[in-house]
Amino acid sequence: MSRKIRMGMVGGSLDAFIGGVHRRAAIMDGEIELVCGVFSSDPAKSKETGKALYLPENRVYNDFEEMILKEKQLPEGERMDFVAIVTPNHVHAAPTKLALENGFHVVCDKPITLNTEEAEEIVALVEKTGLVFCLTHNYTGYPMVKEARQMIASGAIGEVRKVIVEYPQGWLATLVEVTGNKQAAWRTDPKRSGAAGGLGDIGTHAENLAEYITGLKITQICADLTIFVEGRLLDDDANILLRFDNGAKGILQNSQIANGEENDLNIRVYGETGGLQWKQMEPNTLIHKTNQGTRIIRTGVGNLSKAAQVHTRIPAGHPEGYFEAFANLYRNFAIHLRAYWEGKKADPVYDFPTAQDGLRGMKFIDAVIASNKTETKWTDF
Amino acid sequence: MSRKIRMGMVGGSLDAFIGGVHRRAAIMDGEIELVCGVFSSDPAKSKETGKALYLPENRVYNDFEEMILKEKQLPEGERMDFVAIVTPNHVHAAPTKLALENGFHVVCDKPITLNTEEAEEIVALVEKTGLVFCLTHNYTGYPMVKEARQMIASGAIGEVRKVIVEYPQGWLATLVEVTGNKQAAWRTDPKRSGAAGGLGDIGTHAENLAEYITGLKITQICADLTIFVEGRLLDDDANILLRFDNGAKGILQNSQIANGEENDLNIRVYGETGGLQWKQMEPNTLIHKTNQGTRIIRTGVGNLSKAAQVHTRIPAGHPEGYFEAFANLYRNFAIHLRAYWEGKKADPVYDFPTAQDGLRGMKFIDAVIASNKTETKWTDF
Amino acid sequence: MSRKIRMGMVGGSLDAFIGGVHRRAAIMDGEIELVCGVFSSDPAKSKETGKALYLPENRVYNDFEEMILKEKQLPEGERMDFVAIVTPNHVHAAPTKLALENGFHVVCDKPITLNTEEAEEIVALVEKTGLVFCLTHNYTGYPMVKEARQMIASGAIGEVRKVIVEYPQGWLATLVEVTGNKQAAWRTDPKRSGAAGGLGDIGTHAENLAEYITGLKITQICADLTIFVEGRLLDDDANILLRFDNGAKGILQNSQIANGEENDLNIRVYGETGGLQWKQMEPNTLIHKTNQGTRIIRTGVGNLSKAAQVHTRIPAGHPEGYFEAFANLYRNFAIHLRAYWEGKKADPVYDFPTAQDGLRGMKFIDAVIASNKTETKWTDF
Amino acid sequence: MSRKIRMGMVGGSLDAFIGGVHRRAAIMDGEIELVCGVFSSDPAKSKETGKALYLPENRVYNDFEEMILKEKQLPEGERMDFVAIVTPNHVHAAPTKLALENGFHVVCDKPITLNTEEAEEIVALVEKTGLVFCLTHNYTGYPMVKEARQMIASGAIGEVRKVIVEYPQGWLATLVEVTGNKQAAWRTDPKRSGAAGGLGDIGTHAENLAEYITGLKITQICADLTIFVEGRLLDDDANILLRFDNGAKGILQNSQIANGEENDLNIRVYGETGGLQWKQMEPNTLIHKTNQGTRIIRTGVGNLSKAAQVHTRIPAGHPEGYFEAFANLYRNFAIHLRAYWEGKKADPVYDFPTAQDGLRGMKFIDAVIASNKTETKWTDF
């Protein structure tokens, strides 16, 4: 179909954080255009955002039900093709379900839902409808993450023995949620964020990254969750021992009270013959260590896997960053959507996280919370 | 004017490098849309590119004259607002002049023209028409470059004494221009690149960055240009001593035979009371050194200048990179364009390189080439 | 006493690792001289080593009993002042005890003994004799470790909340102990190394460093020890959750199968108002992070604590390393010895690890091994 | 000869900087002992230092003439074997000459003398006497410098094309020489330092390092020297273009007004097929770059040259630093001395800078000062 793919958006008013990320990520490669949206539960705010985004007034809606049902009435050549859901966690499930039930594909911010039950419904609905669903665990979109996954899959470091995945941030080191910080407020509110705080917000990214890169599954955990900041309602720190299905061991730690840390998602994987290290804040560098020496693998340099190459836009040394990694998910989603329309299967190199990944993330949260409450060392996951 | 700004593009076929950069940079912030273009001197290739970009057939042209003159005939609500010129250097001046003469604003890739005479014509034409002209010395679009400039202007390191600016690359370490590498071929061809090779391609970025950050002007140079690769027609290495208008001294070196270097533009500035260091390949870090200690300044962290803040999109630790810095130029150009339409002056914080900067770059090339030929130590600039 | 202090050594033949470290560390500051030794359980090897060290033949002994008893017979102006014990773990307790019982001060490599019972005997004997005993947890000798300890003690990062201490190495990634590697052989042999492998060899350094820097005590642990390399007899990997006496949480992990890691002891401490990070492999850098920015603290730069200053020999930028940190322990030991002779108390800034620290390390090993065996989450320490 | 080698020292009172470095470097490997000295031109200060170093009173002299002549009278088994000269520059030549004339070998701090004439005399005297003379251009003692030299010699980066060597410091950014800083005072005083300031103090280290690593000779220079600090008498900054005997080009810059820089000697060398980078402040890392990727070479890791191995004391990850590199010169000097006594030639892998290197450094100073004065671009060296 020789036209741009049309996106409708739920959430993402002007003062939101992740909405602007999704919009830039969606449009930057020229494959997708924003055609409609409901950007806030407050209709005035939604209108104001729509205007700032140069949308026609009649494509800015008051609520997601209206958007989905009215867009469905529009002619094929005009109506949106998919819905991007960028609301707080408690408003993920309902628009996702309504969109899928009405034939719209979906891109949804993570975590997939507020709880496991909702996540299971989404998984079932995606399977039933056969529509394309992408969950934006965006960190898997980086080329060097793709390279690491390919290297491990091809045996470059041998059987994996040890995995250390960390996601420290410092921005919640004090009770900022009562100071008017909107991002902090909903993330620390059980009603809007779910049963987990930092664990759901960033810990699930770490879990997803570890399993994506290693190709392994975590099977047992032993967790110590903490609320360090007095007055906070949800965990702001997690230290977790991991065991994997191949016998590997590991550690997952995330924190939002790690003073001075920005957004330092990072992973180290050690196998029988080598190790790999990647840091999100310097995303174009992948370090490959062996006892014989260290190699710096860089985006765009030398013989990289196809997976790394097709997720890179420019020559080496022109740093691609967070937006481009995020855009890789949207670009891959677009490729799958066009394949869907043509009745074909997309090349698996253009992968993205699925509803199943989202469900796994919810179960991870459940398991960690259970582990944190018990006196028994190991909890199955 | 509550609509996106409309861009027509000259150059940038699918196999080009910088065209895709301009397109992503232009559209990612939702302010600009691509509406037409002539993407190649080969009409078939231009059409193919236009189709891949989902442009209507009638907005893909055979040459820039056709594009500019036909777009001019279109109604106000439809025709392009500005032309983005992303061709090799020898095709910068002609479309720029024709665009300006026909009332279209211009964004032009650097260097502004093939030689100084052409550059002077452009400067005169921009002044005469009053139209908005942006030259994409994109590296000045990084937030930490803005911060460095503000810090020096506000005296944070005292009077500047020493400047070291470097731009090493390694991709031309062998004669790749005869191996079918299109990017190498035109850059090393005097007819398409001009009198300078690496000096014009990357050395002028270094010169522009040094003057932008320090607020100083280079007044004298002493240059040693080299062609290291046998068979090459233009310089692939430059070592240059600098003297500045305040008495500061310095060094500018660029190279395209620095084996293993990717795109390592970097600058160090030492003043009476401190020093600053910035590297393009880790662009979100600015290092502030004094004899009492070192401070790491990071995009999005702490009390930064307004100039740094308004060129940043997301919280700290979510790395913005090359595309976003480039997009800052387009976003600022858009702000100036809307101000132009409203008859206002844009806030100077939203700056971008001008035709004057482009002319200065051409004169720098002239001075370096003259210095390289003479036996006298210092050549005025 | 205006003469060098005289050292006798037990262990440290020419092909040993740590013996040469102790010798260089002891003598480099000109305070101590080697006067005698028994360098191997093989008298021929001991003699050969003594000769290579330019010792007179009559001061090279066949066993430590002979050395201690014969030296005791020598006149005051000639006999050794203290014994340095640099043997494998199972030969720490006996010479230490004999030395103390015969009035010789002792420097002993860590761990203090093979097991807790022996350690308790040493502690009691040190207390009873009042002699000076130094355990070479050498990593606490670095100036930036001293600085970190002082900063935390003075409240520079507020109350400590989270501690992550790591000690990864890769050299035992394969079964090198059967390939003639003498260092690997005794370290993986329960008879010579004790109940723990990597945990005792390097994990106790991590435990000691964490408590030294933070001034806190670990109170509970939850451990997962592994033998990854088939055929090995002792742990080569440890992942441990920590709880501290002030409510802080943490992680300690050490490994000798972390392929490609050299000797990467490192620590991160996060408090209410800031964080600190130190890495042994770049020991002259201490990173101080807060949500307002990052400061690089460097050996010799700016206003450092007295503790950092008195453990630094040369101006900033002349890297002091492993030997100098080790030498700081010997230099401080020498200061204490001279104070002992003068009947004074040495300035506490010249500190070093004691027998009590050694006993604590042995108890840490016991607790980790107990935790590893139980299904209960938390084990008291 | 089965005994330690005996060192007498000229200079190096307790408040000096480099004297303590020489003493530690000399003794740490157990090959050399300090037996006598004249530590200051002030006899009281000399005595005080000798006492602090635990020397017998009768081996602490009032001036170097006395030391050399009296030591000569002592029996073979007692008198010093060589003289270490660690005075300011203007007191290098006289004791060196007297020592050589009286049959003593010499280790001398750099620069070899105050001027070229003196240096030529020393070179002649060394040749005539056949005695062992070592100039402490200590930075060539690092194992990774040895490795870099071996790699280039063996063609690992192809024919060298470009060399950038830098030595920035910041400690003279203000007129500290008038504030009682003894180190600054003599280094900025033409009478004691010679015709050059920073150029002689650190620039010659850079020149020596560049030629040592590359195996090339600088043939032409173009220099711009500056005194930035008002009231200073000698250069505190140098920017110099270089040309080498094989056609390579380069840059040498040194500064003592580079605010916030500690002691950042560093070098980058680019050849036809790769590049090397080394920084003195992280001396155990050597970076090998090619257009296919980057390799981190580390002291003690993998297959290194014999030259690197024999200058390394401990396994990887236990950082050896400035003192150990300095000690490598003394250790090699000791090996040459023993070979001299045995009438043999030492293995050339145990190299150290010679009087010829010292003379070359003096000529470099002359050439730079001449270049700085002339309006002609290139000055022969």
UniProtKB/TrEMBL annotation, chains A, B, C, D:
GO terms for molecular function: nucleotide binding. It comes from the Bacteria. Residues 146-276 form the GFO/IDH/MocA-like oxidoreductase domain. This is Predicted dehydrogenase. It comes from Dyadobacter soli. InterPro entries: Gfo/Idh/MocA-like_OxRdtase_N, Gfo/Idh/MocA_oxidoreduct, GFO_IDH_MocA-like_dom, NAD(P)-bd_dom_sf. Residues 5-135 form the Gfo/Idh/MocA-like oxidoreductase N-terminal domain.
